[in-house]
Amino acid sequence: MYPKWLWPIFALPGVVWLILLFLTPFYAVVGVAFGGVDPIFQNPLPAWNPLDWDFTSFLDTLSGFLPGRTYWGIFLRTAEYVGIALAISLIVGYPVAYYITRHSGRMKSLLLALLILPFWVSYLMRMLAWVNLFAPEGYVNAFLRWTTLVTTPPDWLNGNPVSVILGLAYGYIPYLILPLLASLDRIDKSLLEAARDLGASPFRAFLHVTLPLSKTGILGASVIIALPMFGDYYTPNIVSGSPKTSMLGNQIEIYFHGGPQPSVGAALTLILSAFLGVLMAYYMFTVAKAQREAQA
Amino acid sequence: MKDRDPEAKPASTPMRGSFSRRKALKTLGGAGLAVSAAPFIVRRAFADSAQPMGPGGIPLARPDHPVTLPMYEDPLKAGMAPETGGDFVVYVYADYIDKGLVNEFCKTHGVNMQLTTYDSQDEAITKQATHAVRPDVVNITPDRLAQGVAGKLIKPINHSYIPNLAANVWEGLQSPFYDVGSQYTVPYTVYKTGIGWRADKIKEDIAKLENPWSIFWNAKEYTGYVGVLDDARESLVMAMLYRQFYDINTEDPAEIDKALADLKALIPICNPKINITEYQTLATKQSWLHESWSGDLLGAYVNYLPAGDDGSALRFWAAPKGKGPIQNDCWAVSASTTKPVLAHMFLNYILDQDVAFNNFSKFTGYQPPQKSMTADALIAKGIVPETLRTAVMGPEDVGAGCLQECTLTSTGQKLWQSAYAKFNSGT
Amino acid sequence: MTEIALKARHSAPPTALRRFRDWLANPWGRPRFLVLVTWLYILTSIAPVIIAIQFSFNSGRSVTAWQGFSLSRWYWGDPVDSVWHDPTLQQALFQSLKLAGLDMLVATPLGVILALGLARWRGRLAAPANFLMLFPLVTPELVMGVSLYLVILYLFTFIHPSTLAQMLGHVTFSLSYVVVIVRGRLFSIGRQYEEAAADLGATPWETLRLVLLPLLLPAILSSLMIVFAISIDDFVISQWLSCGAQCDTVPIRIYSATRAAPLPSVNALAAIMVYFTVTALGLTYLVYRFMTRHERPKGGGAAASMMGDIGGM
């Protein structure tokens, strides 16, 4: 009914756009990471031709990720923050998503709307709100003082990791819950009814039916928030500002704001992307395997 | 704040908006020494053989090794009439000069004001070099002068158009080490780096300590309220001064590593924040002890005190000459100007006593090196409280023997930047 | 157990603990624990924003201590610092809206045809193209920001950091969202209507225009909304491609202010963005409801079907 060339033609502008403004910039990072530095201007001289690539500076930066070296500590710390924030987000987000898809009945639309609301509020604004609440004279401390449980409430913003992790979790949870909801929604309810009919208690039905079926959903949602979280540098800056809580993104930022070593910044970006690529590959592999098993 | 003219546009806008300026203050020392390789005819060259050399054959200026910049062309002839009509482009950091004052100048001479801003010296140099911006006058920092001259971005000036330079500006800056004879530049603001604190939160009298910088390493009880400047040079220099090591332009890896170790030791002691927002946070009590620039304290006093705080708790200390860093920046006539006479007159206008005073007190908070603006005069006028007398600079602070963070060679810059990144990583 | 013991066990008045446990464990009632968690979560995720908006109406300069209500001080009242009078805040507001508008204008059409193309393309290159389209969704913004910054400085040097550069960046990451939404809608429509139209003699072009496009309209609307929201929200890419004070957007202003000593005017600025977004969202929802009124199962669920469209990831 439609000519065969129609769809590729439709896809062409978008694909060209992505190639020019997504792939090529990526290649620019590669070029800068493997390129040289102008001895006079101190600007990076990107090496576009793969034959001109110079790996010494890159290997130097890469070796900084070995245990005990320059970037090992901050890489571990970033992974730790992301891991814990992800765990918190899942622990809070999964029950919420589960409740909304399974049990909310009439309230579902309202709950969905309320759930989606933070998604529409700028991340920065939610962080601003968070910081104002946890400021020394903010509402949280005022509440703690009022309950007389705590006479000197803690200083949340003095640069401690707990605030940063909680801030990350708070900021990214909405981006986790939505995909999780969508995937939980797609679980066939009849499977659960079958389990109950066969005598499983609600808890066992959940454990043996719902949870396994939602595995891909959990994985997908985790990937959706964990990967961007690795590159986060503004949350620690806003909530803390102390070097004790800085993340890998902060290091990358340092090397790009003037100075003689933009190639180090580019190298760090490449290494980060490669690491995330590995995670992404693991995810896609798992999804493909699950799909194969589902079809078998 | 009490005597502030309610009609005057307070510097709240520029101070908050002058993140660009403050961000750039950071890159002053760490900026690259990009010099155009374009050849030029050296009329006068000066090279001290003991001095580090930058590319293009221009030596790196140091306070004890002044440099006379080579003149690649003759300065403007004297006695010409100012041009009029068309645009007059002023290229400067955002919120770093009072638009009203510039506008007045332009109106008087019948030209259109065009205030173009940049975020960093890197950007400014690049845009001028590629002719993306063609200013008439440009605000430039001393460490970029070699670039500006070798790349022919700025023109030599004729002092006969700028009588205010000799009349109003401090002696020590009439012929600064980075531009002997003031052949290309006139100074704009000066500031020094020191310690800012709140006397109502810090019980020590820092100025009376034997080694005031040591307060940071003894600040355990102020954890969470301590700050270090977000600048590769300033932060490491602080650690060097703490050890009373005064070669702050060193490129010796051992010294830099020592400073890094000292800085890192601060983290478990007082968990310092790294930022350049002390001009606000000292005023609002979010920060109690911060490595600061002198202009920050003045700005805090004038603009950021919350209601009910009269600012009497703000304090500043800086080391005497030669023991603490000072810095200044400049104005120059751009090579792309089509109105050279007017450009010269603008430079003269900036150095006018009243213009400089209004610019400082109502807008920027950064002190111009004007003879008339002594600490006494400022305190008498109520701009600066007695408690912040130490934040005001005087002519004795500049000139030979002062400590200034200057440009480094590329290797040196890499060392400093890597050390700073390590400090920032908190590991 | 003896009868007496059994009786004792069941007839003793239930302790409070036992009652609470029974209430929690009631298999026929709603799962109370989940209800609690859900409402607690919703409260804690919305309350801070509400409080931040509340402080935009603070009569004093504090953002942490309530000093009284003032409707207009930080919106238009204060002659120096209010959003209406502070040129930097105004500039940020207009810049954000301008970028969002440009983003919607460019990304939506581009994304729609990209979605159509990718969904129905049967060639060998379709899979890699699809993969390429999905990539921006999982790329950290920092990586995208850095790469765009470098490419603009060293390859595409005719583009300077500017609003144009920011717009290009925004469209690049918005495309994926549009494609995902439109594709979801495509799958739920199916080919039936187009085939019917073809059977009735419509040319491909007419089918596209008169059948497919109207059917896709709800998804296009959702895409417009989502693109608006993520463009307004974007911080990293706008910051890296910014030309200076003139190109700063609202999130950039909020970021600078939050790191220093913010005034309620920043809260007001952020609140204005929330008003915009919520209004646009409400409008879109109403229009969506109206447009899909014939497709919904009886009893509502427009939100659910919108969710279904969006959740087509």
Q: What would you say this structure looks like, in words?
A:
The complex is a heterotrimer of chains A (296), B (427) and C (313). By secondary structure, chain A is mostly helical. Chain A is built from 13 helices and two strands, in the order H-E-E-H-H-H-H-H-H-H-H-H-H-H-H. Chain A has a domain of 177 residues: MetI-like (MetI-like fold, Orthogonal Bundle). In chain A, strand 1 and strand 2 form a beta hairpin. Chain B is built from 14 helices and eleven strands. In chain B, 58% of the residues are buried. Chain B starts with 11 loop residues before the first helix and ends with a helix. The N terminus of chain B is likely disordered. Chain B has two domains: 223 residues, Periplasmic binding protein-like II (D-Maltodextrin-Binding Protein, domain 2, 3-Layer(aba) Sandwich), CATH 3.40.190.10; 156 residues, D-Maltodextrin-Binding Protein, domain 2. By secondary structure, chain C is mostly helical. Chain C folds into two domains: 72 residues, no CATH class; 224 residues, MetI-like fold (Orthogonal Bundle), CATH 1.10.3720. In chain C, helix 5 crosses helix 8 and helix 12 runs antiparallel to helix 13.
Unreliable stretches of chain A (pLDDT < 50, length at least 5) are none
* Helix segment tally of chain C: 14
> Helix and strand succession of chain C?
HHHHHHHHHHHHHH
Strand neighbour order, sheet with most strands of chain A: 1-2
Mean pLDDT of chain A: 87
Mean pLDDT score of chain C, rounded?
83
Distance between the termini of chain A: 34 Å
Spatial separation of the terminal alpha carbons of chain C: 58 Å
Estimate the strand proportion of chain A: under 5%
Question: What gyration radius of chain A follows from the Cα positions, in whole Å?
Answer: 24 Å
Any idea of the CATH class of the largest domain in chain C?
Answer: Mainly Alpha
Largest sheet of chain A: 2 strands, antiparallel
The fraction of residues in strands of chain C falls at under 5%
> How would you sum up the global shape of chain A?
globular
Q: Output the CATH topology of the largest domain in chain C.
A: MetI-like fold
Helix/sheet category of chain A: mainly alpha
Overall 3D shape of chain C: globular
What is the structure about, briefly put?
The complex is a heterotrimer of chains A (296), B (427) and C (313). With 296 residues, chain A is an all-alpha fold.
